Amino acid sequence: MICNECGAANPKEANFCKSCGSKLVKICDCWIKKEPYNCGQGKCPGYRLYTMENKSKS
């Protein structure tokens, strides 16, 4: 898979570019949620995902 942002080649199963970190797919195989998920972010928020979700519920 080729990154639209930097042009780097990535494995076909990659969610994010290994070079620049940009999102490659709309719905990720989220390593935080352990399920397909779209956080809506351009780069993986990692564990900040829980903080983002809590703020959106407030």
Description:
- The chain has 58 residues and is an alpha+beta fold.
- The chain has one helix at 48-57; strands spanning 28-30, 35-37.
What are the defining features of this structure?
alpha+beta
Looking at the structure, what is the overall shape? elongated
Name the average pLDDT: 90
The largest pleated sheet is described as:
2 strands, antiparallel
What percentage of residues falls in helices of 4 or more residues?
Answer: 10-25%
Strand order of the largest sheet: 1-2
Uncertain runs: none
Q: Bin the strand percentage.
A: 5-15%
The number of distinct structural domains comes to 1
SS content category? alpha+beta
Terminal residue distance: 37 Å
Number of helices: 1
- The H/E string reads EEH
Radius of gyration over alpha carbons? 12 Å
Give the tally of β-strands: 2
Could you give the topology of this structure?
Layout: E1 28-30, E2 35-37, H1 48-57
Antiparallel strand pairs: 1-2
Short précis:
With 58 residues, the chain is of the alpha+beta class. The protein has one helix at residues 48-57, and strands spanning 28-30, 35-37. A two-stranded antiparallel sheet has the order 1-2.
